[in-house]
Amino acid sequence: MSDLLNGHVQTRRVRCGKQNCKCAKGEPHTAFYHVWHTDGVRYQKYVRRSEVDKVREACQTYRKLQIKLRFGRIEHKQLLARARELFRRLSK
Asked: Are the CB atoms for 31 and 9 separated by under 8 Å?
């Protein structure tokens, strides 16, 4: 499993279709899916119950990294603007 995953984990009530499962009697059970979007298309992948915590953590780590990158880009633009201003002052 990757340390970074775009998207989130979604919990759904499903019917798996197995003959001896309780969902065959009309009682849906919980299933977990990793859901993400790419180029406007929604994708989903089944997540085993044993891996749900890992996938959730990877999604949270990805979101935290995206926030840091967003602030880094803002800071970069501000520093670049400041450098251009200083260069203009020096070239006069």
From this structure: no
SS3 (DSSP) at 3: coil
**pLDDT by residue (tens digit) across 11-56?**
888 887 788 887 777 788 888 888 888 888 888 888 888 988 998 8
Give the three-class secondary structure for 56.
helix
Query: How many domains does the chain contain in total?
Result: 1
Contact residues for 9 (Cβ-Cβ < 8 A; gap 6+): 32, 33, 34, 35, 47, 52, 55, 56, 59
The residue segments making up the domain with residue 54 are: 8-91
23 belongs to a structural domain: yes
Whether the CB-CB separation of 47 and 9 falls below 8 Å is answered with: yes
Question: What pLDDT is recorded for position 2?
Answer: 60
Residue 2 placed within a domain: no
Has residue 31 been placed in a domain? Answer: yes
